[in-house]
Amino acid sequence: MQVLCDRVKRFSILSFAALLTVNVIGLAAVQARPLTPAEARRYPYAANLPDCGDPNVVSRIQSTFSQAEDEYWHSGLAILGFDQVDEIGYRSNGVDYIPRRYCVAQAVMNDQKLRTVSYSIGQDLGIIGWFGFGVEWCVAGLDREKAYAPNCKMARP
To answer: Model confidence over 8-47: pLDDT tens digits?
Structure first.
């Protein structure tokens, strides 16, 4: 019985060592991939993104927020304007990914409250995906389906 236990222990240690070696080699291979900047691809990105406070960006957030609140939540909430607009990241994911600008702002709501809005502006993420910019946003305290939980943290870099 003791011999069997010793064999199982040896097998377990050897299996763990082999698994660890494979993971280390695999991790090194993933990290060693060549980084191709998004601007140098076959279909390149130009990284021309509007600023965080651009009127086209904030109006898109206002309209989609209003539409979602009316159609799904029937709350009547609307964003009246933005204050303290700041960029918190630009291409934070790396140069070989789709260019994105990360922003945060204080939204002035029609219920007289200020709420933090986290949003990202991505190149070629428009309605069809081939032109224009796309905006993903989250209003803190109003992420009812928890898509960017916790508290809109996943909408940030």
So the answer is: 455 455 455 555 555 555 555 556 666 777 777 777 778 7
> Has this prediction a pTM greater than 0.90?
no
Tokens of residue 153, six digits: 């943290």
- Say how far apart CA 59 and CA 104 lie, in whole Å: 15
Q: Tokens in use for 83?
A: 């204050």
DSSP code per residue over the chain: -HHHHHHHHHHHHHHHHHHHHHHHHHHHHHHTSPP--GGGSSS--------TT-HHHHHHHHHHHHHHIIIII-----EEEEEEEEEEEESTT-TTS--EEEEEEEEEETTS-EEEEEEEEEET-SSSSSSSEEEEEEETT--TT-TT-STTGGG--
Q: What six digits make up the tokens of 63?
A: 């309209």
Q: Which residues pair with 116 in a beta bridge?
A: 106
Q: Are 115 and 141 spatial neighbours (Cβ–Cβ below 8 Å)?
A: yes
Q: Residue 132 has which token pair?
A: 């224009």
Contact by Cβ (8 Å): 79, 65: yes
Rounded CA Rg of the chain: 23
